[in-house]
Amino acid sequence: MKTIDERDTHKRRLLDGLEGLAHPLPQIRAQCAKILGDIGDSDALEALKRVSLSESNILCKTEMIRAAVALEKRLGLGNGESPLLEGASP
Q: How far apart are CA 12 and CA 62, in angstroms?
């Protein structure tokens, strides 16, 4: 069981990650997406999906998609594959 301090730290990291998806620097957006993929919840998943649709930086967009797929898998949703990659040849 997590202590109150651990829950508060987790909440803060989650909020920071969500806010960071709108940061002007692509490196920050990509890192925040990665963090959300590791610790996020269903709200983070929806945010990742939403912002990835309008992301213009290909590296950020890729990290957002990776994070969303990892989060879906961790939350037991979806099939663990990106719908953008379905039917793509290896």
A: 24
| Dihedral pair phi/psi, residue 68, rounded to 5° | -65, -40
pLDDT digit string, tens, across residues 19-41 = 999 999 999 999 999 999 998 88
* Residues 66 and 37 sit within 8 Å (Cβ to Cβ): yes
Q: Find, among 70, 66, 88, the residue nearest to 78 by Cα.
A: 70
Q: Mind listing the domains of the chain with CATH numbers?
A: 4-73 (1.25.10)
List Cα–Cα distances, 19 to 1, 16, 51, 68, in angstroms: 27, 5, 11, 16
Query: What is the sign of the dihedral through the CA atoms of 35, 14, 61 and 55?
Result: negative
pLDDT, tens only, 36-67: 999 888 889 999 999 999 999 999 999 999 99
Query: What pTM was estimated for this model as a whole?
Result: 0.76
- Which uninterrupted H or E stretch holds 87? none
